[in-house]
């Protein structure tokens, strides 16, 4: 953890913990109205739900280097990235509950979160956010800012045409663009080795003559270091990068996924090396913080998450007729 | 605008487009153009001719053959506050980028609850009639008109091309601006009078939601769009000699559609023929027929007539293609049948 500011490490811990706490609560809340018979359209949180438990290091280790002027586009599994980017947690939760107080007044939902105040967006089409980040990077360059744009994707998205078209454009135009590939081993049910011609997507950087980085073991500290270099390069007009991080998906592709494709022993072994617990231990061991101090941080996080859920649950639904608004401006 | 100061020049469709783009780019630095061969070449159909020399490669950007990449990048840049104009060379190529167009460009404003604005103009060339066969001859008006969140326009004459393109660039919504290849006035295609017309030199807007009566008449309403408007006007001349006075409505805007102009015209003529260079099923002819059947049924003295491409891909051989694209002769026949009921 040498050379990393204590402040940054604590920020990363707080963000990862907030995300985990948010997702663990969502895992429970999502089942309301869906038991004993699971119907995806039932309950106060209807529709698909993709939770990011285990994947927090990717978001925290990168976004710690970003400001609100930097753009992030995320995936259908977006909560950890949204929380790290500073998306309003109350409004985000309300959006997931389909409420009028949500980010999009209930028109987007969990897969379509837009918070232009902190330049965050995500979407439900695999790979489609990559060119949007390229466009944001293009705008940054045109306006002579040193702002960067980061596209978070899963490893499955690295096989879409959008990935390759975008990287060629970003490299060709030397844009302040970074793609973070969160390799959680599974594109829904298809394992990486059955979908991808190379073991590491970061090696695809060679094809575009840009930098490629690999972070192993779902390590937030390594993610921090690699991201720092990639972001600095982007800010200094040294071109785009690919960062791939080996991360872990603790839950199904979506809540309700029977996961028949996955060995039942896999997840327990992953949880044993959970990056949040590990970071917590490292922070204490390095004497950056005491257990008591971290407990206080944790209790504040729980409070913040509770507040967001209370806000969402107690907010009003939009009027049905509002469905006809916002098609055009 | 002082009428006496107004300078008017005759321009082709393509020059009207290039002039609109130039004038808007002169006054707004946030506008830039991306597309294939839109730089030095000036656009395969001349839509950006001369702009590269005026504005340079930073604002008139040739792209690789990566429609998903650069149309998606236009979305990202627009969300950041720029005003990109992107060209999809042929509308037929939409398949390779349709996800970006209909899942993102069309929906992000809505999905964000109005918080993200995407002021994008998607230019695209449409139309057949020159033996370019099934993958380079479609108009696909209805495919785009079907999707909520996109304004879709298809002007016919140079005056409207310039005015609607300026309005499209100034609009804060994504606008699909379809220009017909044959109406661009290109030296290497059919030479049509319609592709050369009077255009005021200064900038002006033509609304994106209004059709236009391009010939008034009392006996029958013919609604056309782009080349079908041109053919309808030709047909109207022939019909006039036969004692049938046709009113021709140039649709101009696919979405939103100007119901009022069409219904008012049918209220006057009591007969309607809709002519489309797109496929018959589920298309413009069906949409307009449904509007008139449900909101103007009592105006009608005869069943509505529909002419469009009869649900086949557009064939290559001239004799085959001519058989499937509606023309003035087919319009005359259809109108004669309609008014004889």
Automatic annotation (TrEMBL), chain A:
UniProt domain Dehydrogenase E1 component: residue ranges: 47-320
Domain of life: Bacteria
Signal peptide feature range: none
One function term, GO molecular function aspect: pyruvate dehydrogenase (acetyl-transferring) activity
Cofactors that this protein relies on: thiamine diphosphate
Keyword set, alphabetical order: Oxidoreductase, Pyruvate, Thiamine pyrophosphate
Pfam families: E1_dh (PF00676)
Single Gene Ontology BP annotation: pyruvate decarboxylation to acetyl-CoA
Record-linked InterPro entries: DH_E1, PDH_E1_Alpha_Subunit, THDP-binding
Protein name, entry field: Pyruvate dehydrogenase E1 component alpha subunit
From TrEMBL, chain B:
Protein name: Pyruvate dehydrogenase E1 component beta subunit
SUPFAM superfamilies: Thiamin diphosphate-binding fold (THDP-binding), TK C-terminal domain-like
UniProt keyword Heme, yes or no: no
Organism: Lutibacter oceani
Keywords: Oxidoreductase, Pyruvate, Thiamine pyrophosphate
Pfam families membership: Transket_pyr, Transketolase_C
Single Gene Ontology MF annotation: oxidoreductase activity
Cofactor(s) in the UniProt record: thiamine diphosphate
Every Transketolase-like pyrimidine-binding domain range: 11-186
């Amino acid at each position: 953890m040498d050379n990393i500011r204590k402040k940054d490490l604590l920020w990363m811990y707080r963000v990862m913990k907030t995300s985990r706490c948010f997702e663990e609560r969502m895992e429970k809340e999502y089942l309301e109205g869906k038991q004993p018979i699971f119907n995806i359209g039932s309950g106060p949180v209807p529709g698909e739900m993709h939770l990011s438990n285990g994947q927090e290091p990717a978001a925290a280790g990168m976004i710690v280097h970003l400001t609100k002027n930097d753009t992030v586009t995320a995936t259908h599994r977006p909560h950890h990235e949204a929380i790290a980017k500073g998306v309003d947690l109350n409004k985000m939760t309300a959006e997931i509950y389909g409420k009028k107080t949500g980010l999009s007044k209930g028109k987007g939902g969990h897969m379509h979160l837009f918070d232009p105040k902190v330049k965050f967006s995500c979407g439900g089409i695999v790979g489609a956010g990559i060119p949007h980040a390229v466009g944001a990077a293009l705008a940054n360059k045109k306006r002579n800012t040193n702002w960067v744009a980061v596209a978070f994707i899963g490893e499955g998205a690295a096989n879409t045409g959008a990935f390759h078209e975008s990287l060629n454009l970003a490299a060709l135009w030397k844009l302040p663009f970074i793609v973070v590939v969160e390799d959680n081993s599974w594109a829904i049910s298809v394992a990486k080795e059955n979908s991808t011609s190379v073991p590491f997507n970061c090696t695809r950087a060679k094809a575009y003559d840009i930098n490629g980085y690999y972070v192993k073991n779902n390590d937030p500290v390594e993610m921090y270091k690699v991201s720092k270099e990639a972001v600095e390069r982007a800010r200094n007009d040294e071109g785009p990068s690919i960062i791939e991080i080996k991360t872990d998906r603790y839950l199904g592709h979506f809540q309700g996924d029977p996961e028949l494709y996955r060995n039942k022993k896999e997840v327990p072994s992953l949880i044993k090396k959970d990056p949040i617990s590990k970071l917590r231990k490292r922070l204490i061991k390095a004497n950056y913080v005491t257990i008591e101090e971290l407990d206080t941080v944790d209790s504040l996080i729980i409070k913040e998450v509770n507040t967001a859920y209370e806000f969402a649950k107690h907010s009003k639904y939009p009027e049905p007729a509002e469905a006809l608004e916002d098609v055009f401006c | 605008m002082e009428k006496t100061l107004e300078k008017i020049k005759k321009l082709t469709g393509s020059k009207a487009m290039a002039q609109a783009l130039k004038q808007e780019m002169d006054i707004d630095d946030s506008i830039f153009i991306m597309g294939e061969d839109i730089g030095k070449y000036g656009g395969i159909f001349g839509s950006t001719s001369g702009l590269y020399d005026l504005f340079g490669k930073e604002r008139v950007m040739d792209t690789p053959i990566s429609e998903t990449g650069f149309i998606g990048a236009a979305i990202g840049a627009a969300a950041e506050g720029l005003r990109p104009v992107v060209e999809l060379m042929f509308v037929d190529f939409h398949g390779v980028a349709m996800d970006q167009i209909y899942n993102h460009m069309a929906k992000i404003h809505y999905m964000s609850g109005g918080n993200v604005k995407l002021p994008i103009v998607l230019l695209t060339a449409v139309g057949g009639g020159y033996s370019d066969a099934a993958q380079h001859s479609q108009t696909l008006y209805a495919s785009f008109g079907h999707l909520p969140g996109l304004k879709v326009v298809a002007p016919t004459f140079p005056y409207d091309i310039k005015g609607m393109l300026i309005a499209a660039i100034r609009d804060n919504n994504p606008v699909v601006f379809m220009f017909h290849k044959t109406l661009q006035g290109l030296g290497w295609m059919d030479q049509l009078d319609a592709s050369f017309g009077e255009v005021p030199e200064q900038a002006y807007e033509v609304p994106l939601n209004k059709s236009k009566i391009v010939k008034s008449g009392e006996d029958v309403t013919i609604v056309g769009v782009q080349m079908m408007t041109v053919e309808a006007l030709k047909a109207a001349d022939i019909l006039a000699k036969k004692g049938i006075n046709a009113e021709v409505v140039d649709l101009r805007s696919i979405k939103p559609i100007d119901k009022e102009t069409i219904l008012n015209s049918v209220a006057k003529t009591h007969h309607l023929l809709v002519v489309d260079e797109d496929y018959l099923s589920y298309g413009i002819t069906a949409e307009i027929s449904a509007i008139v059947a449900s909101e103007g049924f009592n105006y009608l003295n005869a069943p509505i007539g529909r002419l469009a491409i009869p649900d086949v891909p557009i064939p290559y051989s001239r004799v085959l293609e001519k058989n499937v694209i509606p023309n003035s002769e087919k319009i005359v026949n259809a109108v004669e049948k309609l008014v004889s009921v």
